[in-house]
Amino acid sequence: MRGKILGLLKKHSGNAVSGQEMAQYLGVSRIAVWKQIQSLKKLGYQIQSRRKSGYILGTAPDLLLPEEIKHGLKTRKLGTKIYYLPVIDSTNDYAKKLAQAGAPEGTLVIAEKQTRGRGRLGHEWFSPTGQNIYMSLVLRPNLHPAQAVRITLLTGVAAALAVKNYCGIDLGLKWPNDLLVAGKDHKKAGGILTELGAESDRINYVVLGLGLNVNMRVSSLPGEVRKKAASLMESMKPIAKINRVELLQAILLQLEIQYQLFLSGGWDKIIENYRRLDTLKGRRVNVKQGNEMVSGQVAGMDNEGRLLVRSGAKTQSVIAGEVHIV
Ligand code: BTN
Hints:
5-stranded antiparallel sheet; elongated; binds biotin; alpha+beta
């Protein structure tokens, strides 16, 4: 009901709505409306109460509240159910539990802060409070587990398109899961962590995790990470704070578009876009694939989304691994 009241207040943007009118519209008592108004105020919404005319909505808090995300969200499936957590160990871990308990496709987990945010290959993902986006989605594609890497790749494309549309910033992709701010030093502004619940031939669920440095000051990160990191706010010219709710809505919409395209046979189009955004082609790399090291020059990506690394006359395709640019 809180979301509906907020919706009504927003609809009247800046004008008063009476408690009586809202109560009637929602089929509840005026006291019930009043209680929800108090809970909105507690969250940080500025709401004036005028005795004669009713409630007027002022500024909203800078939080990724479900009520905010849902207001104006254009997706059909992604984000229909949202779990909002001010603090959590990892949104991926939380989403995994929800997925195991049967959460439907499109369930979204959002946190303001993670105490144990995880990156790929056991890396930590720094997750300070209230500045960035930490999200995990539950997906249930009807796919063979070997194809799950495509979800990571299409998410990279979706995030880059959304960031370009909403912030005007060009992102580049570093296979398979890094989002870099395009430019000469290619610093990392985001990453994707895709995790599976699967049987040998069938995916049961995918937890798609995305972390994006939005309004963070890179100088607040620890030394080693700081050197390679970027934030979107600091990549704006001039530097400007970004509305996280609107950016998140843009990302969800692009993700839904790319995901539907993929499910309906449009993989070729996605890989074509990935190639356009790829920052590795032509670079000399060392790729750690399990215990094996593959070294050479990146020749691009094959149609399955594997990285092609050329060394002399030999080209090797890499399914998964950690890429170091030489
Ligand atoms: C990487 O670059 O290695 C992937 C980083 C993924 C971070 C996100 S933040 C939301 C979700 N929850 C996590 O614990 N990790 C992912």
